[in-house]
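pasting input
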Amino acid sequence: MKRGGKQAFFSRWIEGNGPEADTVISSRVRIARNIKELPFPYLASDEQTSKVQELVTKAAAGQKGKFNDFRFLRMAELSDQEKQVLVEKHLISPFLAREAHNGALLLRQDEAVSIMINEEDHLRLQCILPGLQLEEAWREADYYDDLLEEKLDYAYDERFGYLTACPTNVGTGLRASVMMHLPGLIMSKQVNRFLSALSQVGLTVRGLYGEGTEIVGNIVQVSNQITLGHREEEIIASLYNVTRQIIEQEQSARQALLNGERERIADRSWRALGLLKYAQLMTSQEAIQLLSDLRLGYDLGLIKNVDRRLLNQLMVIIRPACLQHLAGRKLSSSERDLERPIQVRRLLNEYMSKE
Amino acid sequence: MLCQECQRYPANVHITKIVNGKKTELHLCEQCARAKEELDFSFEPQFSLHNLFGSILNETILGSRERIAAGKQQCPNCGLTFAQFSQIGRLGCSECFGTFGDRLLPLLRRIHGSSNHTGKIPNRSASTVKVKRELERLREELQQRIQREEFEVAAQLRDRIRQIEQELREGGEQ
């Protein structure tokens, strides 16, 4: 295991090359695990949470070579900004960044797999992949789960399954989610009908930035709510099937837009690109909407001079901590609105000069 | 207006606090506001799911005397009481599940529609669970075979079940 290391704006999911990538931005699976008898992190003493860190790193090191491509990062040794960058890249939870005691992270080189230590549970194993790859993400998480379980005494009960701090995670401890870009359904106002149906099949919908956030940039996250009473494969399959249905509906909504308002959509996308290239002042709200318009233009084949990787990168760099990281200094919210177009322009120009 | 704390950035967070009729005002920049731990700046509503748990947990316990007695029940491993659990909505450790056991059932059923895990079984920590699960599956199949009058297969299954049961008993004695 290597320690520390510089953060680049690269993550496996940002590559954007998975299946159904024109509607599904990323697929994520996370499983919650705890160590037997040790109090859960919120109740544990400092000594006990550092013991968890030690046990997990030992377990990983004990699996000869299997964790070689992981970095170990202690939250206490990172700046607030560095932690927030990890949050904005969807690699760790806001909770781990801000509130965890003795929080730590094992992060695979390609940033597809992150193992959070001392989050709400002792362990949160996450795999995030580009496009619709729920099964693949589950397999990855499952693999590392098995490796760690060989060396750690997990909290498990015959009746309740994997035991977690919050009763909403008990059982499989599995939360699977897809992040989808749904401009067609949202623009044609069909989305509400859809989303209310989801809750009836045990799924929840959230905005781009997680729990309690509204829908911005036509992006929604759909995830399972129930973790107990269904097998992991069933949970994954049911989310997968629903996602496929949403994709179908979104595609036909897009087709309808293209048939009826091709010029208007093309104009909107090109204008978005123009603004992204030349604007001098930009709020994150505006940026995320422009990126959605541009993405739609690209997905419909109306704009060819961008690609999915660039679109994903742009989505990440417009966020506060990433902007400050790129600028190399702290920025107030109004300074960020000035910095945002500078960084967006830099990335766009870099990309277009390579083309 | 500049932030009262750092005097560097414009104040864009304004807080008016009224405690016991005494009014105080704070004008902070975003960073300083975030740094003030007493204030929670996430946009998540303060009300959380966990507040709901308490009422579900207590709905099966009718009398107030009973409720007080149940609340005092304490996990011997981490010290969390049932009253604390129903307040914060989080268990304290793996042993809490054994301690509070059946009292958790209504809550789990309300959240998940079920209180029985059917998914993954850890290889090492619960090897006997795996065997038991396999047994259940074989018994079910046995019933189906008998109903379909496939007695030859059924006999094989019956022998296999007996063998596993035998192994389990021997394992238990060791």
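fyi The first strand of chain A starts at residue 2 and ends at 3.
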